[in-house]
Amino acid sequence: MSIEVKNLFKYYGEQAAVNNISFSVKKGEIVGFLGPNGAGKSTTMKIISGFIPSDQGEVTVCGLKVDVDNLATRKLIGYLPENNPLYLDMYVKEYLEFVGGIYRISKLKSRVNDMIDSVGLGLEQNKKIGALSKGYRQRVGLAQAIIHDPEVLILDEPTSGLDPNQLVEIRELICSIGKEKTVMLSTHIMQEVEAICDRIVIINKGSIVANDKTLNLQETKGEQTVYVEFDQPITKSQLTSIPGVTKVEAIKNGWLLGSDIEIDLRKEMAQFAQKKGWLILTLTIEKKTLEDVFKNLTK
């Protein structure tokens, strides 16, 4: 595994910011690390990156223990913090050469030029960072995170504050990087998670409440919701009498029917409509959105 977290704890005073969490991320995987504000996301990412120590537990990056081989693991990690700290008075190219020099990269100028091309900073490379838009500053942050060709990339809110066009560009860039690297990112934008991530880890109040693929989280067993339209007026009481239906809600031109037991509502609906002589015009399963899943797990 590229990242492995086992029984991790971190306390601030008596409060457990991270409370006995375990998960892993394999090479070539893009994992979304989600949670409400104060859930422990940034703390966990800082521990993995070696910026702060844990109080208990073990974190390994590419087989090396972070608390033992801190300098060695940092060389394997590219990290973009949430606030993207940059030297605003430095020029883009100058800044990347400065960062590359810290990593003692050979053929530095060639590597900087490659980074500028890969993140789309060609027209901005001779500008001061302070003169760049938020989107281009994020590109500079990504360039500094990957300039030393790390095995693991950790991104904390990489798309925060970007406009729709910039979101698409940064998303494509992260997906491109993810083909060769291990990527762990946090975000509050659910559409980004669905578009980018192979798997999702959700943390709430310091504990992991979900760790699965997006589709698996959206298709929760034992719960189903269908949308149905009929060719004639139907009352709520009539629909409530259908076996297995526990929720009835009028919506649009039809009804939203829900069940909290493991049952195929489409089959029950079709059989009931046939007995009543009703004609079904529309019958579709309503998938849970990732936002619904997130709310249910973190409320």
Index terms:
four-stranded antiparallel beta sheet; Alpha-Beta Plaits; 11 helices; six-stranded mixed beta sheet; Rossmann fold; alpha/beta; 14 strands; 299 residues; elongated
Structure description:
With 299 residues, the chain is α/β, with parallel strands linked by helices. It folds into two domains: 3-215, Rossmann fold (3-Layer(aba) Sandwich), CATH 3.40.50; 224-298, Alpha-Beta Plaits, CATH 3.30.70. It has eleven helices and 14 strands. The strands form three sheets. The chain has a six-stranded mixed sheet with strand order 6-7-8-3-9-10, sandwiched between helices. The chain has a four-stranded antiparallel sheet with strand order 2-1-4-5, covered by helices on one side. Helix 3 packs across helix 4. The longest helix is centred in the middle third of the chain and has 15 residues, at 164-178. It is elongated.
